[in-house]
Amino acid sequence: GGTKKIQLLLNDYIEQINDLEVGEVIVNDVSREGTLLGYDLDFFQNMVSLFDSPVIASGGAKSLLNISELFKIVNVCAAGIGSLFVYHGVNRAVLVTYPSHKEKLGVLNGN
């Protein structure tokens, strides 16, 4: 997958998606996927402005604060998060973690 090149401008493709009147769109910043560098807030703000449907942002989450910033600064409806909750420590050992209820409320409330 992902190896077939097409001759279609991004804005034209987004217009086609908007014409489909989908319920929501997942936008994955593949340049940051799995890097823990943080969401590219400018990129996602641009994507939100182009789509008629709610946008789910994915790719780059680095902390709970970063997720909170995404919701506070960019009008996304959800965030895709992977590596942040899976890899742990300097050796990036697999340790599935998930924020506590209190931490999740902090993210949603901008703390």
Structure description:
The chain is an alpha/beta fold. 39% of the residues lie in helices and 14% in strands. The protein has 5 helices and 5 strands. The chain has a 3-stranded parallel sheet, covered by helices on one side.
Helix content: 25-40%
Q: What is the residue-averaged pLDDT?
A: 90
Give the biggest sheet.
3 strands, parallel
Could you give the distance between the termini?
39 Å
Radius of gyration, in angstroms, nearest whole number: 16 Å
**Which structural class fits the helix and strand makeup?**
alpha/beta
What pattern of helices and strands is seen along the backbone? HEHEHEHEEH
Please list the strands of the largest sheet in the order they lie side by side: 1-2-3
The number of distinct β-strands equals 5
**What is the 3D shape?**
globular
Specify the number of helices. Answer: 5
Q: Which residue ranges are poorly predicted, with pLDDT under 50 across at least 5 consecutive positions?
A: none
Q: Tell me the β content.
A: 5-15%
Defining key terms:
111 residues, alpha/beta, two-stranded antiparallel sheet, globular
Brief rundown of the structure:
The protein has 111 residues and is of the alpha/beta class.
Write the layout of secondary structure elements.
Layout: H1 10-19, E1 25-28, H2 41-50, E2 55-58, H3 64-73, E3 78-80, H4 83-86, E4 87-88, E5 93-94, H5 101-109
Parallel strand pairs: 1-2, 2-3
Antiparallel strand pairs: 4-5
